[in-house]
Each structure stands twice: as C-alpha cells, then as structure tokens.
Amino acid sequence: MPEKSNFDRIIIGIDPGTNVMGYGLLGINGKKPALIALGVIKLSKFDDHYMRLHRIFERVLGLCEQYLPDEMAIEAPFFGKNVQSMLKLGRAQGVAMAAALHRDIPIHEYAPLKIKMSITGNGSASKEQVAEMLRRILNIPADRMPEFLDATDALAAALCHYYESSKPIMQKGCSSWKEFIAKNPGKVKM
Predict the structure, then answer these.
(1) 70 is known as an active-site residue
(2) What is the CATH code of the structural domain delimited by 4-183?
(3) What is the C-alpha to C-alpha distance for residues 30 and 166, in angstroms, rounded to an integer?
(4) Can you tell me whether residue 115 is helix, strand or coil?
(5) Is 134:152 a contact under the CB 8 Å cutoff?
(6) 48 is annotated as an active-site residue
(7) Rounded percentage of the chain residues whose pLDDT exceeds 70
(8) Selected residue with higher pLDDT from 173 and 31
(9) Which of 8, 58, 65, 75 is flagged as catalytic?
(10) What pTM, to 2 d.p., does this model score?
(11) How far is CA 53 from CA 14, 71, 93, 111, 188, in A?
C-alpha cells in the first residue's frame, strides 16, 4: 500500500449500497491522479438492516484510518420509485458520511449524472463504460479491475471530485463598462 506521504492528497470515493457498497481511493501528486485501492464491502450476509449499517460504519472508518484520506466524494442516491429502497440507501449513505465526519474528513456529494459526465463525457453512460474509462485514465491493468462495478463507481466519484476541485476559480466579470472602470482604476485611460 502506498504511504500517505507519497501523495499531496488522497480522496476516498464511496458508492453507497445496502447489499454491496463500493469504495475507491485516489492519490493525487500535483496534477496526476493514481489508483491506491478499490473494492467492495459485501453486506448481504447480514440479514438485519441495522447490522449492515453498523458494518458500513466500521469498514468506512477502517478505510479512513488505514489510508488517511483528505476528502470523501460520495455518490448521491438517485430517486427511484421504491420509497423503502431509497430510505435504506439514504441511511447507508448517511452512515458512510458519519464515519468520515468522525475523522473530520470533508464530504463532497455528486449526482450519478455528474460523475458519469465527468468521467466519460456522457451523463447516461453505462457502468461498464465508466469502468473502462477509469481503467484507461488511471492506467489500471485489466487484471486489477474489480468484479463488482460498485467499486469503479466509487472510484469514479473520487475522480469526479478531483476534476471538480482542480478547476480554476473563475472571477465574476463586470456587468458594464462603468463597473469595469470603477474596479480597475489606472488601467483604463480616458
């Protein structure tokens, strides 16, 4: 495992789930992102929903303690028709967030459409397309790609956050010449 000192910053990505939760860790050196780890937390062996939530908290906290991420990027739940499923997914997301907050890790939430768009350029890309683009962008050998696409979805959230947080900050322009002259005295000769 790469050490924390090898990277300027580390981002943990989480794809919340109540049966399978994906995670991916991205190390950043300058402007170069690199894969640290990715995998899934399998929860289907727990019959009790509350035990699943407990396991999510333990594992996400453990990942935070092991890899010392600077930030968390988490996929926002998409709105489905099944209210009970949405409630359970929201709880899983909240517990993962609580584990990060327990370690004072800032959280950034991204909609699935935003994540897909930032990785593939297509907001309706399939999970397989996202995984393949991640493999190419991060030079991940095909044999290191995970079986579960929840892991690559989590890594995509982390990479999306890297892209979003690396954008230059645009300053608000002036709405008129009069405002421009007032803000830039001495730069405009009359």
Answers:
(1) no
(2) 3.30.420.10
(3) 10
(4) helix
(5) yes
(6) no
(7) 91
(8) 31
(9) 75
(10) 0.85
(11) 14, 21, 9, 22, 62
